[in-house]
Amino acid sequence: MKNHKPFLVGITGGIGSGKSTVAQIFSILSIPIYYADDRAKWLMAHDPHLKEQIIAAFGKESYSAEGELNRSFLASHVFADEDKVKLINSLVHPAVRKDFEAWSAAQKSPYVLKEAALLFETGSYQELDKVINVSAPLKLRMTRVLLRDPHRNEAQVNAIIDKQLPDEEKNNKADYVIKNTDNKLLIPQVLKIHQELLNTQIGN
Q: Which among 11, 39, 133, 142 could bridge 174 via Cys, Cβ 3.0 to 4.6 Å?
């Protein structure tokens, strides 16, 4: 195989769709996974330039005296305000993009996966070669989330769902759709996509 940068594949899905489970299956196949949402939190806490930008935008209360991210302050003063959410996203998303570029360039795999809840909503899917959407019926997703996160109620889950594109729209935008329902096996679907992606790279 020619020496080139890895093929960039996104994996997304609404809350409770099971995208993390699907990502784990790809991980078992030795495909590197970049967890964008976790990485964004890490960068907000550790990237000096991003920290400076957040403090400039939202004040010193954004971090504790020890320099730790003040999550309760951000939750009550930033994430409750749609304009402030757009502002913080405009700071965090470029930092994540730069971090992902550096991470993916260091990988030796034929392709890598970027796992993120809001790939389509943020427009970051446009920087990827292919996108996989993990799809599941709304009722099943709600049941999964309430079982997984007992501290959440139905209204809170619906509030999160409202900020995400409808499943049908994601399916139409995605290159691949994995159906994570109770009567559909996940592993054969993942293996089929995995083989297609490998074949694409061999063809190049």
A: 133
pLDDT digits (tens, 9 = 90+) for 123-165: 899 999 999 999 999 999 999 999 999 999 999 999 889 889 9
- Overall CATH class of domain 1-32+109-204: alpha beta
Residue 17 annotated as lining a ligand binding site: yes
135 is in an annotated binding site: no
Does residue 163 have a known ligand-binding role?
Answer: no
Nearest CA-CA partner of 14 in 187, 159, 192, 133: 133
Show me where the domains of the chain are located. 1-32+109-204, 46-106
Q: Which residues contact 65 (CB under 8 A, 6 or more apart)?
A: none
pTM above 0.85, yes or no: yes
